[in-house]
Amino acid sequence: MPKPILIIQLRPEDDTANNELEAICRYGGIRDGEFERIRAEQAGLPDIELDQYAAIIVGGSPFDVSTPEDEKSAIQKKVEADFRRLFDDIVNQDFPFLGACSGNGLLGSYCGARISRRFGEPVGAKTVTITAEGAEDPLLQGMPEKIRVLLGHKEACDELPQDAVLLIRGDDCPVQMFRVKSNVYAMQFHPEGDPEGFALRINAYRQHGYFPPEEANVLIENLAEEHVPESNEILRRFVSRYVNHNTTIT
Length: 250
Description:
The protein has 250 residues and is α/β, with parallel strands linked by helices. It has helices spanning 14-28, 40-43, 74-93, 102-110, 132-135, 195-204, 216-223, 229-242, and strands spanning 5-9, 35-39, 55-58, 97-100, 115-116, 121-130, 146-153, 156-157, 164-169, 177-180, 184-187. The longest helix is centred in the middle third of the chain and has 20 residues, at 74-93.
């Protein structure tokens, strides 16, 4: 029997966390019984034995790595410390990992990149560019050079982490997706994102500083007709690469 995928979440709200989980499973082609879930924002991370899992996926969060230490909550400090210990094992073993948005900041920070608000981007859809190195990566091979993604973040990597490979770049945020070694991935956008899920997040986070609260309805309307099939396909390919089945998303 294949090992499960471990899905680590960091969203405090049950509705956004449950929607994110459902979207990761749907676009990743992960079936019931093929994953385990940890809500790290509740009590941090337990000891994780990597040999018990096929891969790890980490979603988004309202936590910001760049928040001054004296302004971080106790649970955020614990989560960040727990991830540093987990990344010691993940990077050392080149263990399959995919971190989206918050997962990108956590991995980028661990790998030595500065994380700041310099390259934050408003909630919405963007066109990003697959690099020459990205076009050779198994998760991106055969895709158009320009793809649409859904994103919205206050912070990002100021530069590519040392020894990482830039896979996707953006005009407003240079580091949109990178890889460490062969199997450790992170992206600033949301590969599980779709207009319905983003509408839920926009309403949940309208007071969190991502955008002026009065713009929430306009943002939702602007995203209603967006389609990001290549972005969703990245997630499906990651799961398919490390789990012993293939699933086509319709």
